Amino acid sequence: MEQFPDGYLVIDGTTILETGAMDSLPKDIPFDTCIDAKGAILLPGMVNTHTHIGMIPFRSLGDDYPDRLRRFLFPLENECMNEKLAYSSGKYAIAEMQLAGVTTFFDMYYFEHQLAIAADEMHSRGLLAETVIDSVTVDVSEPMGGMQYAERFLPKWQGNDRIQATVAPHAPYSNTIEVLQEANALSQKHDVPWMMHVSEMDFEVEKYREERGQTPIEFLEEIGVLSPRLVAAHCIHLSDHDIELLKKYDVKVAHCIGANTKSAKGVARVRDLLAAGVVVGLGTDGPSSGNTLDLFSQMRMFANFHKTHLQERSAFPAEQIVKLATIGGAKVLGMAEHIGSIEAGKQADIILVETDSVNMFPIFDPYSALVYSANAGNVRDVFIAGKQVVAEKKLVDFDIRQLRAELAEAMEQCGFQSKALSAIERNI
């Protein structure tokens, strides 16, 4: 990324018109509005490549319990999740991301049409993928019913400048071969990325080894669904051959260091992936998995965990980590021609990180400051497609207190709090 210690940026409508050093700013550009960045760091909006924004209500619930998914999340999801709760959670989650400088995200959950409406209302940029799984879920009445939902869902958002609808089989082991192939075909038909959890679980790797003598990724190659459109989330357990296959088919990887390490699943082979030429971006996973939706925390955890795992302080320079959170994520989502870097002609998805706070002085290297010093609270201003959505650390068009109240009301109406407390009592 080109750096300007004292620079300017010109936005025309939704796009970046030009950028450069301040002393080369043309004198004849007619400005409608001029913003003094006051020494802030200007960078592209961050891209969260994997999350589940409908799951805010589950945050902090049973975090330290084994088998948390089946003991807490699945039962409460089946009892409580509905359109209103998903929608309210989605808006709150998007607010959290915008306040942290995340301007684009790739979501997979249920009631994705409502979540897409939430993203559109919040003026966010996102890919919203309906989950497909081999069981009845909160929004479909039969196993694999998410495919039919997705087939109806995708056309509704075609032509939207910021929102894309797509499909997300939960995992290879929780879908049939036919459904995985159908999801791939649907993605190809509509020319959109699709997502799946891949090589995340120990039991998943063991299942394919015992039943087929393969890794999950080798299985996906055999059935013909590896492609440049597939975003493989997690990819914690990879063989050398897996990495070769990911590169061969240009599969993209969403790396979620916070959720992966919190759940003690392991540290993915990101250095080997990047060395092989595999495209990687950062993701938070859901707010119930990693407990946060901001990428500043992920960047710092990425640095600390990978350097420790490799026992190499110089592994992953800060500039490389910032790129994983920006242009890396844009490449994962197939949007690098439009977002992810500050270049003329790209969408004006930009953020300003203030340098006035106590943790932001001194700054010898802006990339180092962003990875090791900054946090989400340092994000001052956020623009998506040229529209300012955060100003002076506050949402422009929404009140975070009101969004929280609406989410609390939706949780109250379905009895979420009391059922969650009962679940904790049963599992103590």
What does the model show?
- This protein is an alpha/beta fold.
- 39% of the residues lie in helices and 19% in strands.
- The chain is built from 16 helices and 15 strands.
- A hairpin with a 2-residue loop joins strand 14 and strand 15.
- The termini are far apart.
Tags for this model:
four-stranded parallel beta sheet, 428 residues, five-stranded antiparallel beta sheet, 16 helices, alpha/beta, single chain, 15 strands
Radius of gyration: 21 Å
Tell me the helix content.
25-40%
Can you list the strand order of the major beta sheet? 3-12-13-14-15
| Large-scale geometry | globular
**Poorly predicted tracts of residues:** none
Measure the end-to-end span: 51 Å
